Amino acid sequence: MLFNYNEILKIYKNDYQIRKAISRHKIYKIEKGIYSNNHNYNKYEIVIKKYPCAVLVGETALYLKGFISKEPSEISLGTKRNALRISDDRVKQVFYSKLEYLVKNYFDAIKTENDRFLPTFKDEILLVDLLRKKEDYSSEIFNEALNNFKNKAQYIDILYVETELMDYNKLDSRNAKYLSELNINRKSELYQLYELEKIINELYKS
Q1: 65-108: per-residue pLDDT in tens?
Q2: How does DSSP classify residue 107?
Q3: What is the pLDDT of residue 186?
Q4: What is the pTM of this model?
Q5: What angle do CA 193, 197, 200 make, to 5 degrees?
Q6: Exposed e or buried b per residue across 73-99, where buried means at least 16 C-beta atoms within 10 angstroms of its C-beta
Q7: Is the torsion defined by CA of 172, 59, 103, 50 positive or negative?
Q8: Which region holds residue 25: left if phi is over 0, alpha if psi is between -120 and 50, else beta?
């Protein structure tokens, strides 16, 4: 089990007793402010314990959910827009203007090999972020993630993704096309409008 400093202090009452427990290998100090009573933990669990108000997003969430195969070098953490900046070489901080709303309505959890759960967002939010921040991803990562989203398209609320992209003013013709490809049974409504506009333009040209 992982503990932060306040949690371990409640158990051992003072710093002297904490040091004593460490010297007797009852607990282990992993890094400043983080302790464990065993060696079963991974780097994602440690970072989330250190920053409990954050959620895993971006490439990190895509990797842990199986949308991409290459493990990113940094751990992407989503925080409130007004949160303090995280000074940690392991972490890439991503600010969200409506984090509380997303956590309340689109929270998801990733189970680790140690039977712990890491906070993240549902696939819809990961897809929204992928499409609205295309420039933040390499073409290799972007294409791999998008192809794997296609495999889960039947479980994804495409209409919600469309609406979110519209709110961010990111529903251009390319993103609408991506969504229509994901949505096998229903072409993106806005993509249909783009197609209609294309036909009208061709008619005017002729």
Answers
A1: 999 999 999 999 999 999 999 999 999 999 999 999 999 999 99
A2: E
A3: 47
A4: 0.86
A5: 140
A6: eebbbbbeeebeeeeeeebbbbebeeb
A7: negative
A8: left
